[in-house]
């Protein structure tokens, strides 16, 4: 009986290491209703959370999500509403004139702790049988154009802790082109793996259309072989333990249209 109990506990321990709450691993995407809005249009948009690109499988916690509309130095906060039916957070922005705009999203850091009894949201402090604990944070930037794209918005650094910055204007990219993208971690180049896909590429979870790595300057080259709404995603894990968690995991997504 004792051996059997130990065996069962061992199986549960192993399973707890691999069964990760969906909220930690889902991609965080800000998707507008159209990528080609017109001037003075009220543009609906949604915050998606999921493994299938670009479909929402879970609603992000609204209290931890901040949206803004950025054009140059002008930053406007955007209100969000829960949509339990579609499992999205919905919003709308008014685009006053022609040019390019950035829809910026931040899913603030949330701590999850894995114990031998399963995952629990919150600090590891005071918990028993802790396996690991992490703070999970996500960012997104979505580039949209009204009529004629401007020459500067696409390369604007908004200051996200983990940020993807195009070095080539995405508005000029067509299928077959290769674009350059710089990955920044707190303003400095980051060497990391870069994943990319486009809306509708696959109905299977976590299926990417392209993968590459940055060079030592944090620059990645991505080749676009299909028109559509593309997303580029990077991840960074900071293994600096605090009294609340063991590591800080960040993800960042850049969304834009390729015609």
Automatic annotation (TrEMBL):
One Pfam family cited in the UniProt record for this chain: DUF4198
PROSITE patterns linked: PROKAR_LIPOPROTEIN (PS51257)
Cited InterPro entries: DUF4198
Source domain of life: Bacteria
Name listed for the protein in its UniProt record: Nickel transporter
Organism: Desulfobacter postgatei
